[in-house]
Amino acid sequence: MLKLFFKPRFSDRIFLTYVCFGFLTLFLHRILFFYVYSYRLDEINFLLILKAFLIGFRFDFVTVSISLVGFYILSIWDTVSRYQFYRNLWVVTPLVIYPFCVLHLFADLLYFENANKHIGYEAIVFLGDLDVLIVSAWSEAPFKILSFLFLILLYILGIRFWFRKKKIGYQVNEAESNRYSMTKSILWILFFFIGLRGGPQESPLRASEAIISEDALINQIALNGIYTTINDFKSQSIPKHLKMSETDMISIVRDEIQFDGSQFLNDPNFPLLRKINERPGKKPTNVVLVIQESWTGKFVWPVSDGYWLGKEITPYYNQLAKKGHSFRKFYANGGRTSNALLSVLTSIPDRPGLTAIRTPQILSHFSAIGNIFSELGYETSFITGDDLKFDSLATILPHFGFKTLIGKEDFRKSGLYQIGAWGYDDEHLYSKAIQEMDIYQKNNKPFLMTILTMTTHYPYKVPNPKYEIFDSSVTDFDYLNTYHYSDAALEGFMKEIQKRKYFDDTLFVFVGDHTHHRYLSYYEDRMVPFLLFSPKYIKPKLDERISSQLDVLPTILGVIGRETYFSGFGKNLMAPNVKSGSTYFAYGSACGWIDEEKILYQSVDGDTQFIFQMVPPYAEDPVCNPNRTNCTNQTLKAKAFFNLSLELMNRNAIYPLEGRLRYSRK
């Protein structure tokens, strides 16, 4: 029946066989993985496991497509494929590679036992110690090694039998019409193209889409070691000229981020793990963290006077900032919301280029703000007017400890709100947040409420013309008008929440996620506002120290004053004698360092480096150019943060899994 509609040629039959065999191999590996590690599950949720297996099919689709698409393209050239040598390139080479793929999957199975993650870039790193690994594996599991070698032998004998019986080495593509041949080739290429994306969806498949549960093992079932290794090398490699020894990077980072009231536990497996001591005295109970979309620092007080072309863009925020603890030299560690979410919520800097949120690194275990506050007995909520599918927030945020998620779809279903240009406008987010907090207060539950605002996102449309304080003759008028609206929405929120009993015992934290990037110098493009506001507990202060989004989480923990454990690259800015005056950033294809004297931009794709002075007109520092050896301090610190942040995420060595946590918590 199949041949009536589809007449497969030799190459079609070969690749149909290889595709099916690839899927079967990865499926059997997933079953074996589940069998070996199912003991780690507290309970067997068959529906959840089935979902993980179904998602795993998509990751397998990517893996098979990456492995075979190049060979299929070679097979299209019929004229040359008549020659056996060329034909063997796309017929035999995949068969030679296959045992190495199986070996890789086998190594992944063993590697997971100690690493709690699928193998990645370590696969190549380990080749340098291949002899040691073989000896170790033989001494620990000789039966497994012998079984694997026996299977490889069976594979070779099976391939030899197949070649002889079907005369594979002598077959060539049968003749057919050019139109029919071209149609099939297009369908094959479309198949592989969809496979490379992990399906027909709008965005390519990301490792974070494997997160479907609070159980770390469930989230690993869908992945396979071949996929994670390919993804690692695609996005995580550190250039040789930027590499640093582990001892040096840990020493530099620790020295930079230490603060009074915390102690490093000197755990060799988790080098940044710290205990934060309980702070005596009165302290706030609840936390409202507002992450302000595209709030550029230059338009607000205290980064500037808050006026632009004679008009005050954010009159309410400026007054609020003068009543709280404001930071004039506060910097974003990245340039996108995904970078900010990682820095603010986990105190781990994102990597240059492709965000870790779109890589297997996001499966690492973080001491994220939601995790910490959940363990302290808090209700943890995250509200945004955007689609929670964006950057896989629907899976990542529960991984960060947030129990309640409210996004675009929830607002739409309620039927109470009108959608804006990009998502639901700020006033609606604030209104919904107050509803949720009122419920928590009624139930006598402390809460962590995180709000990611939306209206100041491109395409910059205000919900009402009354907020249009600039016309089209003003550069950036559309953005500035939405900025003004966002401030008005914030004013309505704060005035309403001041009527609540829980206002006095709540810490309000306002932080920009990144600038809007338009018409800004490299210096202005890093600066965002940061404000701590809690009139009962925090005195008004203008803080001139350099700080960044990495400091937000430890500062919140310091103000709340509960004993806990934490692992990150930031410091508590409210602690006495805290070291300050510098910070790290990574954005695009560069990482860098900012201190009171200089701002360093270091390319991670090459050895390009720029060091600018931190005084107007912010020109290149003549002391550093062309002789870099005069300015090594900034480079060393940037390299240390860059290396250690990637290393800890790659090794899943940020924070212990709950099942392995060896420290008591209160």
Automatic annotation (TrEMBL):
The keyword Metal-binding applies. Keywords: Cell membrane, Manganese, Membrane, Metal-binding, Transmembrane, Transmembrane helix. The lineage of its organism: Bacteria, Pseudomonadati, Spirochaetota, Spirochaetia, Leptospirales. The active site is at T337. GO terms for cellular component: plasma membrane. This is LTA synthase family protein. The keyword Transmembrane helix applies. Its main location: membrane.
